[in-house]
Structures are given as structure tokens and as C-alpha cells.
Write a structure and sequence with these properties.
2 domains; alpha/beta; about 15% strand; single chain; five-stranded parallel β-sheet; globular; 5 strands; Rossmann fold
Length: about 170
């Protein structure tokens, strides 16, 4: 039976995963207690980290200061596989909706995507072929307002509650 550890299990994305892991032994950790459970992480077949890094959007962060990288360093000597939730923003921005290939060049255009790229690179250096990076679109996210926590869905909710209307465009001219 696969042993899976989920960090940030109360995140929006993680809540939909539980039904798919019925045949696995699943342990859940909060992002702030992972360091108390290093043995559990090292003995797992896979760690899926859904925790968020709110600072990613506000300032440049060195990889060694990033929670995801700190966890990976503890997994380096184990056989544990690691799944990192990244972002499609690492491919840059465009005027039109594009479908990206995994092999497309990475082009961080804001602090958030630059931090994600640096983190992906650091994780790859540490874990090599035991790392899976999922570059999901940022349109998904928790559909609630939470101070200082912005997702596309959160922005929609906030805009609608504030203005009772929502205008969304991908046109650069607005």
C-alpha cells in the first residue's frame, strides 16, 4: 500500500484529491508542523505539498529560504517522491490564451513566477528524477476572500461582492 503524505491538506486543490487516494495510507500535515514529522516524510512513498507561500507574490525569495526546498533537502537521502505544485505563470504572459508544452522555455514575468522558477530549479537539483512539477493554471483557487491571499477565484468573489459585477478581459487594452 502506497504511503502518501499531504502537506496543506486543507487547500482547495487538496480537498478534491482525497477520493482518489482511497487505496493509499494517507497522512496529513499542516505546513507549520512538517519539521516535527521528518521521519514520516522520509518514510513516505510520496509527499504532495499543497501548502502556499504567500511571500512568493510580494518579494524575491532565495530558494534556501523556501519551505518546499527545505522539505526537499530532508528528502534527499530517502527514496520519497515529491510533487510540487507550481504555476503556468512560469511560461510568461501573453495576449492570447496559449497551450504550453512542458518543454517550453520558462520566462517569469513577475516576482511570483520568478520565485516559482527558482524553486523548481532548486528542487530539481536536490531531488532529480524523484520530483514531479505540476504547472497548474492560476484560475483555480480557493473561492473565498481571505486577507492577503489572492487567487483568481478569490479576486472574482471579491470583485463581485464589492461591485456586484465582474468584467474580465484578456485584451491588453482592457
Amino acid at each position: 500500500m502506497e504511503k502518501i503524505v499531504i502537506i496543506g491538506s486543507d487547500s482547495y486543490i487538496a480537498t478534491g484529491l482525497e477520493n482518489h487516494l482511497k487505496n493509499c495510507k494517507t497522512d496529513k500535515l499542516y505546513f507549520n508542523n512538517w519539521s516535527e514529522n521528518i521521519d514520516l516524510l522520509q518514510q513516505a512513498d510520496c509527499v504532495i505539498n499543497f501548502s502556499i507561500a504567500p511571500d512568493f507574490s510580494t518579494r524575491k525569495i532565495e530558494p534556501e529560504d523556501v519551505l518546499y526546498v527545505q522539505i526537499a533537502k530532508h528528502l534527499k537521502s530517502s527514496q520519497t517522491r515529491y510533487i510540487f505544485i507550481s504555476s503556468c505563470k512560469v511560461y510568461g504572459t501573453c495576449d492570447n490564451v496559449l497551450i504550453h508544452k512542458e518543454t517550453d522555455a520558462l520566462c517569469g514575468w513577475d516576482i511570483y513566477s520568478q520565485n516559482k522558477i527558482k524553486t523548481e530549479q532548486a528542487l530539481t537539483d536536490i531531488l532529480k528524477d524523484r520530483l514531479t512539477v505540476l504547472r497548474i493554471p492560476n484560475v483555480i483557487g480557493e473561492p473565498v476572500k481571505r486577507a492577503g491571499y489572492k487567487t483568481f477565484i478569490g479576486w472574482i468573489c471579491e470583485s463581485f461582492l464589492k461591485d456586484c459585477k465582474l468584467t474580465v478581459t484578456q485584451n491588453a487594452d482592457g
